[in-house]
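Colleagues,

For the teaching module next term, I've prepared a clean inverse folding example: a structure given as tokens, and then the sequence designed for it. I'd like students to try predicting residues themselves before seeing the answer, so please don't circulate the second half yet.
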């Protein structure tokens, strides 16, 4: 028995036999010298292969649109753009004349050059795009070499899929009923693999170094997507533990499922809302399945992370789909939050020395009103189909809020001028994720219709800690007195102004923290869909007076350690 560690990318536990999925990586592509007179023939071969690849990708795009939605279909739209990229074609044709080697070798060399450059980028979303380049390149190579591309569609038994990486096309085309778990050597939580694995509810551990060399074909593997753990050839005791974990999880889920249609209401009658966060439209189904009161945070920027910039109609369709799927429950759409750790060169967002303190979120949108208006028009049009709220990220000043509201008014006017139906009046709120916004929340509350506290960033900026830096991650403390006081101040100022205050950071997903937040007066909680039942149960198991007592005791403590110890003793 051997244990491997990786990145927990999609929750759940699975045990099945390994299916090692090795794809063409270019290492077996031969180098063959050609005569100058043969360059035209090689160029014609390339164009033929591109044409065949285009047919393949178009079919995958259509399949993705039906099975996974417009945002995943957009991944393959970007692949089509790559296939027809005039710069790539010019580069290939020029290289044929200069190097006088077969076109397959040139495709491999150019792929590696692009992949190496992107692989060294600091921005993780750029690094993840290496998979798109490799997907397109390997499809072209398959046709040039006349090799049948490996298919995961015909899997006939339950497997844990093990690969160096998986292409978006692999994820869309595979037999998902047979793939019980996924292990890859590359990728992270924002990769296409992770996003799709969560959407398909397949446990996944990514970034497992040497997985293909350390695991054997058909050997039994246990995958824990919550802990980021892969157990190779587990002994009987380990299998029993995995089975017990799955059974316990199933029992807990069955118990929690009984709360699905019940309100998040304290035993003395206080009703609060427990909503869900989503990244892609496919997650909307899970929101309903877990009994959430709606969507408290739709991270709209994930529609843009496939290397393809969606136009107004594409965004409109995606937002409308989510809004209608909620069947009357409210949907809060956060406007584009790029920059920081989500750099999109297609939109002009570039690497910066201090990206998390730089040109990101509302700052980017206010300087690129053309892009901002496109999104706002799409949201306003979609909002006609159900209860919708707009939320601005990273608001630091009242002036930013006023300017953003003015752009909403302009976008609405443009819709009406076109003769399009658009929501005339919908709640517009802001995220409180910068200390300045928390401290001035009484001022911001004069113009905002609601607050949503984003604790992930609020903690980061309050503690001056990069939450992605493992060397200082110990400072990312939700229970630090400074963080708790900023949360309390925001709630109090929202209450004074008569506007609801919610929270959409990870802190809201912790049942113990939920009791504290309830006692502080929080009106709404938003979290991953899977966390909704446990938080709902915690709220339904206490009284408001008990929660206030817990919150009062916590606010009197002087360190994160003291708060954690108190909550552990008080609530467990």
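(Answer key — instructors only)
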């Amino acid at each position: 028995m051997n244990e491997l560690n990786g990145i927990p990318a999609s929750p759940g536990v699975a045990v099945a036999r390994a299916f090692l999925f090795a794809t063409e990586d270019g290492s077996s592509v031969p180098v063959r010298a050609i005569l100058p007179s043969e360059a035209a023939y090689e160029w014609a071969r390339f164009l033929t292969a591109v044409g065949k690849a285009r047919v393949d990708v178009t079919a995958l795009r259509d399949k993705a649109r039906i099975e996974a939605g417009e945002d995943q279909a957009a991944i393959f739209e970007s692949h089509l753009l790559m296939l027809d990229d005039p710069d790539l074609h010019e580069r290939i044709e020029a290289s044929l004349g200069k190097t006088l080697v077969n076109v397959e070798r040139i495709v491999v060399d150019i792929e590696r050059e692009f992949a190496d450059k992107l692989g060294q980028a600091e921005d993780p979303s750029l690094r993840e795009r290496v998979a798109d380049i490799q997907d397109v390149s390997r499809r072209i190579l398959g046709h040039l070499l006349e090799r049948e591309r490996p298919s995961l569609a015909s899997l006939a038994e339950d497997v844990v899929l093990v690969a160096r990486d998986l292409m978006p096309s692999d994820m869309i085309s595979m037999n998902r009923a047979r793939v019980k778990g996924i292990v890859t050597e590359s990728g992270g939580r924002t990769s296409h693999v992770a996003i799709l694995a969560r959407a398909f509810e397949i446990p996944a551990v990514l970034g497992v170094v040497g997985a293909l060399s350390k695991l054997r074909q058909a050997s039994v593997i246990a995958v824990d997507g919550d802990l980021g753990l892969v157990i190779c050839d587990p002994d009987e005791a380990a299998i029993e533990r995995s089975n017990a974990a799955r059974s316990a999880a199933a029992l807990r889920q069955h118990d929690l499922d009984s709360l699905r249609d019940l309100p998040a209401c304290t035993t003395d009658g206080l009703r609060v809302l427990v909503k869900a966060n989503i990244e892609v439209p496919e997650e909307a189904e899970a929101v309903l399945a877990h009994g959430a009161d709606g969507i408290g945070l739709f991270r709209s920027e994930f529609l843009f992370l496939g290397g393809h910039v969606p136009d107004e109609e594409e965004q409109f369709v995606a937002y409308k789909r989510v809004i209608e799927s909620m069947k009357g429950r409210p949907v809060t759409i956060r406007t584009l939050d790029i920059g920081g750790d989500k750099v999109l060169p297609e939109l002009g967002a570039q690497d910066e020395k201090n990206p998390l303190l730089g040109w990101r979120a509302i700052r980017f949108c206010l300087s690129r009103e053309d892009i901002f208006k496109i999104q706002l028009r799409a949201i306003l049009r979609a909002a006609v189909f159900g209860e919708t709220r707009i939320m601005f990220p990273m608001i630091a000043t009242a002036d930013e809020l006023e300017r953003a509201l003015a752009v909403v008014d302009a976008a609405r006017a443009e819709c009406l001028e076109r003769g399009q139906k658009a929501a005339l009046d919908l709640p517009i709120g802001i995220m409180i994720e910068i200390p300045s916004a928390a401290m001035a929340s009484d001022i911001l509350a004069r113009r905002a219709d609601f607050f949503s506290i984003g604790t992930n960033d609020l903690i980061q900026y309050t503690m001056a800690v990069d939450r992605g830096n493992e060397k200082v991650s110990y400072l990312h403390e939700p229970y630090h007195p400074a963080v708790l006081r900023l949360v309390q101040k925001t709630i109090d100022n929202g209450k004074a102004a008569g506007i609801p205050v919610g929270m959409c950071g990870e802190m809201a997903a912790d049942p113990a923290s939920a009791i504290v937040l309830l006692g502080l007066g929080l009106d709404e909680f938003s979290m991953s869909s899977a966390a909704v039942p446990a938080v709902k149960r915690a709220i339904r198991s206490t009284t408001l007076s008990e929660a206030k007592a817990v919150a009062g005791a916590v606010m009197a403590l002087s360190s994160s350690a003291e708060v954690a110890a108190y909550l552990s003793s008080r609530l467990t």
